[in-house]
Amino acid sequence: MTIIQTQVLPSTSFQLALENYSRSQDKNNVLGFRECSLQDVLDEITQVESLHEEKWVSKYRIRSRLNHLISFVDRYAKAVDCLVQTANGSGVNPAAFIWGLLRVFLETASSAVKYFASLMDLLEDLGRAASLYTQYDNMYSHHPRFQNALVNVYVDIMLVLQKARKMFSKSNFRDDIVLVKRQLSSLEQKTTLAHRSEAHILALATKQAVIVPETDSNLVEKVTRWLAPIDCYHRSTTFGRQSITNDDSPGDLLLELVPENAQLILIIDGIDELDNPEELIRVLDGLVLQTTRIQIAFLGRELPQFKQHVGSKPHIRISTDASQHDIASYVARNSGIIPVDDDHLRQEIVKEITSRAEGMFLWAHLVLEDISTSTSITSLKDTMRHCPAGLDAIYARFLDKLASQTRHRRTLASDILNWICCAARPLTLNDLEAALSTSVTKGIVDDDDKPFRRTILDICGPFIAISPGSNLIRPVHHSFREYMLGPRMTMSLNDEAKKFLIVQRQAHAQLAIRCLIYSQLRLPSELGRNDEPGSFYRYAINTWCHHALSSDYDEALEQRILNFLSIDKQRQTWLYWILFKSHEPFPFAKVIWLQKFLAEWLANGKETKPRDPEWSGKDWSINTLSLILDVPDDTFEVTYFGKMMVIRDLARRLNHTKQLSAAVDLLEKLQSTEKDYQTEGAIKTMLLLNSLGILYDKQGRFDLAIHTHREALAIQTFHLGESHPKSLWSLNEMGRMYRHLGLLEESEKMHSRALEHLSIALPDDHPEMIWTINTLATTLRKMRRPEEALKLHMKAYEARARSLGDLHVHTLWSTGDVAKCYRDQNLAHDALEWYHKAYNGRSRTLGPEHPDTLWSMNDLGNVLQELGRSTEAYDTQTRALEAQKRVLGVDHEHTMWTMKRLSASVMN
């Protein structure tokens, strides 16, 4: 239980209540409370718990249930004692009244078992009410009727405690409980009246602000601050919580949390255990450059990549001797596990372990664990005599011990080591138990085969560390993982012990199979609902592909993958988790990436096994389209903007794979049956119309796209209002269509209206803001206003680069947009730099023969031609044309454009 110790000025209502209560008591009764304090109450709780069985304590949860009430009183106690003078000159601290009543209540009530449950319910309710009405007191203390009601509540709470202190008489005590509830009900009514009064004042102030801007400005500011959380909640449920904001940047978040003029020292331990320490060092190093308020200390082994980044900065090298005293203290403190009765012998063992540890805490810890299993003085001395030096030798010794276990325990140990060393993220004990209950040979998940937790700890205890509270299980040290996975000297290991060493790519294949089996057999009944699957299901569905791509080709794994992906519901569930549950910005790029690399992984097995050459996952795009339409609209993680951005990325993919017409036919067929403007079906109709508009746009049918988006906007405005994000999406899309048709002024109006509404509700770096800024900038560029366009495109680029990284496809779009602005201003050298950046990024992200990459080559050729570098321009566009013929075909619009461009170059 956490008790708030901060001294805070008491509310007037609480002060008046204490004064009223103290006046109602006679002098002898008042003196009975002298010096009673918070500690007395906590001691009484401990005493009550000690007198009862653990089951009784667990049932009534005295500490946690009294937390609100005790925190409320303690928050004001010290300040009240200073400010309030008690009646009768008793010298009793005012807060002692409540502490005394509460202590005696616990003392007597705990023995009256038949009343205790209901009385604890009462105290819990009183505590919650007191904490809640403290907030109301701050807001409405200037309302006399509200304050009188609150004073009555506080006084009656103390009277209830007093009556409980004397006796638990059913009739009288119940009357007091009823009175408190009546006072609380009255207070609810007064709160409502006060709230309406404040709202009325705010409305008047808002209306009068045009005439007299400064009128009641303090009141408006106060109420606005009070309403801010409600506004934030409304905005988050309307626009959704995006994962592409500064809040997701640890560095930016840390800067916001550090108060002005405060100094913060960050100590980062275990930096050497990170797979990618360079990224963390880079981010934190950037923080130090931004402010003098933060200082950072890194602790870890002196690795080359670590020295590269921080080697020039001040550092301290801790010698082996410097840690000997700490190791001695650690070993002495834990020497109780040494199974000897002779204290002199125990001290000798402690000294020997300390002297041989050579500064390694882990070595000392593992040796203690080893000798704790000794069966006699002789075996203990033998263990110490043959105890190897260095961690690798200690690890080898433990593996040798594992090799002497039974066959079943050796198999279980091998599975455990594979999971803790190769898992994509640390697993909890529950995750590990679920993973181990999945049988590769039987292809089932058998809960009865789940190993006992004590067995897991007994077999692999020395190798694993479990985080308190979270139950996350990790290797005991990063060096153990390196030993199990990396090149090592195995001469000292016997043949059975060598089997525990992990061949990483083989281990990943086994983990992928287990994840696929679990994902298939624990499939949720319905997408997007609240029947959230277990933690290991979330791991399995999200990471089976990671494990598969980290393995060598395996025929058994291939069969599992094909079986999993061949069933619509399983494939759609997996796609749903990637698109909407991974909380990644613009996740369809990941779907394309996984599809590409899975196809390559499967192709590696063609030489060993015949396969259907048609399988390439090409139907994923249509599946994804159907999936988005089926996700319930009230699924919080899936925002409308998120859905539409996936549809937009999907449309590009459908166009590249020649499936666009099939997708349009599917949506038109659905639209003909789902057309509903007046009922709940209107939500589905909006989604269908906006999706169709995007596909019509990709087909170049701009008039039809405008008509479709206008139809969606009419429904959205009628049901949701013009400032709703669904309505604003349609506005933006209509703006884009007007731009395609050359109606640039109409386009600017649409984007500007959308941006005006979004600016009220969203921060500048919100993805929907960035999208709208970018579309407006494109219109401005078409209107021959490149300077204005460049500022907006650069703003969009910087926000996307910060949130998504330089190589994300959306960042690369903005990169190309910046290049076009420079080119429009005849700044060809700047344009060339940004076109190169876009081309190189797309080559790495999408591949050298992706249609967007090939189009970037055309852009490069154009600007090279303008710079007079005709040979380079011709060679670049020739390579683009050859690839476009292979990838897109001779009749594709991109191929035909490049052919015309090259013909013109030859003629020139």
UniProtKB/TrEMBL annotation:
Q: Which Pfam families match?
A: DUF7708, TPR_10, TPR_12, WHD_GPIID
Gene3D superfamilies from the xrefs?
Answer: Tetratricopeptide repeat domain
Instruction: Give the residue range of the signal peptide.
Output: none
Domain GPI inositol-deacylase winged helix span(s) in chain numbering: 405-486
Name all DUF7708 domain ranges.
Answer: 66-178
Question: Known InterPro entries for this protein?
Answer: DUF7708, GPIID_WHD, TPR-like_helical_dom_sf, TPR_rpt
Q: Which PANTHER family match?
A: AMELOGENIN, NACHT DOMAIN-CONTAINING PROTEIN
Q: What is this protein called?
A: TPR-like protein
Write down the species. Answer: Neoarthrinium moseri
